[in-house]
Amino acid sequence: xxxxxxxxxxxxxxxxxxxxxxxxxxxxxxxxxxxxxxxxxxxxxxxxxxxxxxxxxxxxxxxxxxxxxxxxxxxxxxxxxxxxxxxxxxxxxxxxxxxxxxxxxxxxxxxxxxxxxxxxxxxxxxxxxxxxxxxxxxxxxxxxxxxxxxxxxxxxxxxxxxxxxxxxxxxxxxxxxxxxxxxxxxxxxxxxxxxxxxxxxxxxxxxxxxxxxxxxxxxxxxxxxxxxxxxxxxxx
Length: 236
What we know:
Helix content: 25-40%
Shape: globular
Largest sheet: 5 strands, parallel
């Protein structure tokens, strides 16, 4: 029985109703808010396990809610954004959001994102010394990377790029954040160098033409993603 609490913040009543019904039907305890101010008031009284936050709100915006909340809470934040609003997604992620969904979205995808957020909110695998992602193993303590059990040689910059994504396993990391944290602040806008290194890294750890692990989030950044394991068919 799921007992995690989710706060949904959106100014569209039909979305609030739909998400309340859908998430409650999957065992979550759901509370709602329709403004940024109401959301912050609820968050100060009780922090949920996951926050689902629309970016466009009356009064305090979703981005401002992210910034204020990050001053005192690490609660996982999944932001909701309008289709094509890439700049807002990037600003939200840089302001402390963990993930995003573009409207319209399916309940199945939202539930998957919530499960990822809950894993990170408790005891994330990315906080362990060794991060296992499919056939890829990243030993953050020894600075060693293996594919199918065989050690792979990475340049120092390639390793730092992969390690940064591993520490944020299943989370999207913006171009700006990767460039700032791996190359330094003066490289924050040099997306070309990031693209080149990501292509080099893919050639060493997976099939670059069909990447399953190092996933591009168009216009936003990259994500080291845990592969989805297909459900095993029932035995007659």
